[in-house]
């Protein structure tokens, strides 16, 4: 009975903190408690912290306008790994931990490479687990591939916080519409572009040709790609292609493309991303901020924990019975086991 109690107490003290949910919360239109954690395996680089700050600051304004003045990022903690050198500007974490991070910065996962992604297990409208950025994404110029980092962050935040999904489909880039026309899988259909096959590329210059129709499928040939025109008037949608300068909004019920074979339609019963967002806990009681002023810039806290020192005191006076010695040995073994387990979990999360 006593041994079982030790097990319960030990696991409660050491394992439960690792499974807490996000600390981020919305208060008076501002998100507080956001945690961005850098994986211990990432080499120390001051530029990484600076780029994270710039990304979040610019994303806050973009998010504010995309949500029609409803939300912005107010307080953000950046968790520095113990593998980096200590500095005077680093504070001790209070409750923040890698396990609770909303965003993790870690080396590439084989499936995604440097592509940003959000781990989503839930259904439509359910929060995701975390956003994953690689150091290379944050340190190099990826503008031609992803667009600006701040817009990418807002795209991923929408996955994480509001449980919405992508409006493109790599596996089904085209479909036949109800008007019997071939359309690119997108939202909204107001986004214009060309359908081409890339024949040869040298640097940023490519030779293309128009796509041919496949007589068997009725769609374009397999290598056909939809290329949005740089100059657009369409303002949505962030969940399709946030990199376009004109795109500053989410698809609404008026602009949503219900025919597109994308994950948003599949998971959310053809509801628009904005409808799902407005039904979220964040937006049920969030009214737009009055006035025309932009939101205040986010404040950042740099946090770094100290190495934990464990001291074991042994009573050699003879008063400690063999029973308690066994329990002490058990606690030491369990402590080492949990430390090992946490290392494994962190490596899997990265």
UniProtKB/TrEMBL annotation:
One of its GO terms (cellular component) is plasma membrane. The keyword RNA-binding does not apply. The chain crosses the membrane at residues 320-341. InterPro entries: CLCA_N, CLCR. GO terms for molecular function: intracellularly calcium-gated chloride channel activity. Residues 25-290 form the Calcium-activated chloride channel N-terminal domain. Keywords: Membrane, Signal, Transmembrane, Transmembrane helix. It comes from the Eukaryota. Residues 1-21 form the signal peptide. This is Epithelial chloride channel protein-like. It comes from Ursus maritimus (Polar bear). The lineage of its organism: Eukaryota, Metazoa, Chordata, Craniata, Vertebrata.
